[in-house]
Amino acid sequence: MKLIGSLTSPYVRKTLIVFTEKKIEVPLVVEDVWSKTSEITSSNPLGKVPCLVMDDGGAMFDSRVIVEYADTLSPVNKLIPPTGKDRAAVKTWEALADGIVDAALLVRLEPTWHPGNQASQPWIDRQLDKINHGLKAMSDGLNDHEWCFGNQMSLADIAVGCALGYLLFRFPNIKWQASYPNLDKLYQKLMKRPSFIQTNPPQ
């Protein structure tokens, strides 16, 4: 298998962290999906990363699909509960964290595609509201617990950590660490893990 992705994508980072925590070696093939010479559509018709290319040449895409598959490949460090409400709870955490990243990417892209006074400030403000509401929901959900769900690290914590890391990387003006010290405590704990250290985006 090989994973097609970029070094700065939080979705790719989430996927790499899961493979690392599962102790599964998957090489990363760096691809710039914005380049006119990109060949990503030969593996993913949507032109997005991450994309997992299988040994038989088939492809799997969307980080949520890939990490769910990865968790089935090894009994080491199970990250997603097998069934029921617990599984839905962890996946809901992932959806919340990914939703924050989705909104952040839209904020970042708006002035890129609509430079100068063409950028829609109401649209940007709407996405920033999503980020702020999402951060509060994550902080409230974590409360004073050690982990987002259960008594050990799960996919919920990985997704949250990747979302928080992306905000630090691209939106240092969003002072979530001061506003939500419990999220910062979790993030600092995650950043001691080799899987997070190795995938920290280049500055």
Largest sheet: 4 strands, mixed
> Into which percent range does the helicity of residues fall?
40-55%
End-to-end distance, in Å? Answer: 28 Å
Q: Identify the CATH architecture of the largest domain.
A: Up-down Bundle
One letter per element, helices H and strands E, the order comes to EHEEEHHHHHHH
Low-confidence stretches: none
Q: Rough shape?
A: globular
CATH topology of the largest domain: Glutathione S-transferase Yfyf (Class Pi), Chain A, domain 2
> Which CATH first-tier class of the largest domain would you pick?
Mainly Alpha
Structural class assignment: alpha+beta
Quaternary state of the chains: single chain
Mean pLDDT value: 96
Question: Count of helices?
Answer: 8
Total strand count, please? 4
Tell me the strand order in the biggest sheet.
2-1-3-4
Radius of gyration: 17 Å
**How many structural domains does the protein architecture include?**
2
Content of β-strand? 5-15%
Domain GST C-terminal: 83-203
Pfam families: GST_C_2 (PF13410), GST_N_2 (PF13409)
Domain GST N-terminal: 1-78
Protein name: Glutathione S-transferase
General description of the model:
The structure is a single chain. This protein has 203 residues and is an alpha+beta fold. It folds into two domains: 71 residues, Glutaredoxin (3-Layer(aba) Sandwich), CATH 3.40.30; 110 residues, Glutathione S-transferase Yfyf (Class Pi), Chain A, domain 2, CATH 1.20.1050. It is built from eight helices and four strands; from the N terminus they run E-H-E-E-E-H-H-H-H-H-H-H.
